[in-house]
Amino acid sequence: MDIPYKTYLTESEVPEAWYNVRADMKVKPSPLLNPCTLKPVTAEEASHIFCDELVKQEMDDTTPWFPIPKEIRDFYRMFRPSPLIRAYFLERALGTPAKIYYKFEGNNTSGSHKLNSAIAQAYYAKEQGLKGVTTETGAGQWGTALSMACAFFGLDCKVYMVKCSYEQKPFRREVMRTYGAQVTPSPSMLTEVGRRINEEHPGTTGSLGCAISEAVEDAVTHEGYRYVLGSVLAQVLLHQSIIGLEAKAAMGKLGVKPDVIIGCAGGGSNLGGLIAPFMGEKLRGERDYRFVAVEPASCPSLTRGRYAYDFCDTGKVCPLQKMYTLGCDFIPSANHAGGLRYHGMSATLSELYAQGLMEAKSVKQTDVFEAATLFARTEGTLPAPESSHAIRAAIDEALECKRTGEAKTILFGLTGTGYFDLKAYESYNNGTMGDYIPTDADLEASFAKLPKVG
Ligand SMILES: *Cc1c(COP(=O)(O)O)cnc(C)c1O
């Protein structure tokens, strides 16, 4: 090992501002639309749902840098800077000339990168003098991160958790309750939309889109509450830019430049954050990189979706967003990467992909777990199933280098750890894991229901 295995930034090298990649995009992502009027959402309308400062960040596509408030930087010190790790042992196992680096975001109790945005969103809610926030959680990582953040600032936290994961992941639920959150299985009988969905689909085990609708309704019908979202929105990508800024600074210290940057993509927040400063250079014509979004073959919004305005939630109460989507009623078949099951993709990443500035690929679940297992055995860390999509793509890239003899530098985002996903590992180890892929007919049926806009 000629250079460090792990590279950390010193405290004085840690970024003090987030980077807004939209500022450098010539063609901006399309604006959010009001679901009733189909006109662009105004800040006033959005402020009924979201915190004021977060609305400002959401709508600002021209300011490149947002200083990170001191309270947030202080909290970040508990788990940041996160390490940039050279995957020497994985490289050796693959016999590749490629150099593989990963940025590890799983070193906090919530176990993922989601805490980077949760603490920012909780901070702005507190600053506004709110009592609390509501949210949804699918696999549970976002709910856990938000519970930690709310506990830190003494805010009330109401989490609507997709019913099937509420039942399948009791440990996640208890972590959230330990941090003081109120966790409700969704669809519930607490909201009008929950009661409606329960009536229309008796016995349903819920979906992310449905839990979002419940959380939004709860926020707008209770004084002093706002809704917060853990991915997809531009503000979340802004907060997650801390990942890319740190990674870029650490690679700069080592004097290396990545040729290809890879991340898993659910709603797009970790990938959007990881690539942000590198994409900025590409957009400004300073340097070139390849960017690769990796999604599950069971929920392929970029690789097989439509680029169109769609609802962000099943209940159709949230603003519409122009994005690559599978349709807001699309329920992906059972898949163990719960954090990658959202029907749409960040509008920013969607626009970058549409412009050909980013690539996308989809990978099958069993191939993902094969990669996860090799990674665990060589690099030590038990990766989250979501993160393992990026591992799969990085390994494939490194094997391609072995074939061609090219010594490319690969950077990927290791978004989290898999301790709460052992049911998934169990089914892989037992040989019972399946590869579900929607048919074209399934997707066409869903596209037919896309809202007609413009
Ligand atoms: C939520 C989650 C993801 C996917 O979310 P993005 O917004 O696409 O980043 C990926 N990895 C982990 C560990 C997650 O918890």
Q: How is this structure best described in words?
A:
By secondary structure, the protein is of the alpha/beta class. The chain has two domains: 6-13 and 80-111 and 241-447, Rossmann fold, CATH 3.40.50; 17-67 and 114-227, Rossmann fold (3-Layer(aba) Sandwich). Helices cover 41% and strands 16% of the residues. It contains 18 helices and 15 strands. The strands form four sheets. A seven-stranded mixed sheet has the order 1-4-5-15-10-11-14, with helices on both faces. A four-stranded parallel sheet has the order 8-7-6-9, sandwiched between helices. Strand 6 (132-137), helix 6 and strand 7 (156-162) form a beta-alpha-beta unit. The structure holds pyridoxal-5'-phosphate. Pyridoxal-5'-phosphate (PLP) binds at residues 112, 114, 141, 231, 264-270, 339-340, 384, 386-387, 415-416. Pyridoxal-5'-phosphate (PLP) is lined by residues 112, 114, 141, 231, 264-270, 339-340, 384, 386-387, 415-416.
